[in-house]
Amino acid sequence: MKKYSLFILGLLLVFNSQVHAQAVTKVGTTAASFLGIDVGPRGTGMGSAYVSLSNDATAMYWNPAGIARLNSFEATFCNTRWIADLSLNYAGAVLAIGNFGNIGINATFLAMDQMERTTILQPDGTGEFFDAGSYAFGLT
Hints:
- With 140 residues, the protein is an alpha+beta fold.
- The protein has 3 helices and 6 strands; from the N terminus they run αααββββββ.
- A 4-stranded antiparallel β-sheet has the order 1-2-3-6, with no helix packed on it. Strands 4-5 form a two-stranded antiparallel ribbon.
- β2 and β3 form a beta hairpin.
């Protein structure tokens, strides 16, 4: 009887965990995924192996400690045309403050072109347009 009870309990645990695992799908899989798109031609050209070498204004993306190597003002602006007509824009500036260190500010924008709104009743379009984007700002 004890083995039978343990067997039923084991089945209930397995069945219960599968029900919960199937109830939630793809939660948290798309939030801020645009932050994984490489910034700057040098780091991208090196296959993202730029973390230990970053010594310019793109260091705020790759490794923020890299701005400590800068001795003067530096700014960078990057525009990348991405898949599906997406556009990734990155702007960063680093200011050397002498003995106090360096301070940097950056912004990353992922934007898309306008699209016409469609509905089930109007699959060819409603005449209304929308656009979407994701934005991130940083201070280093």
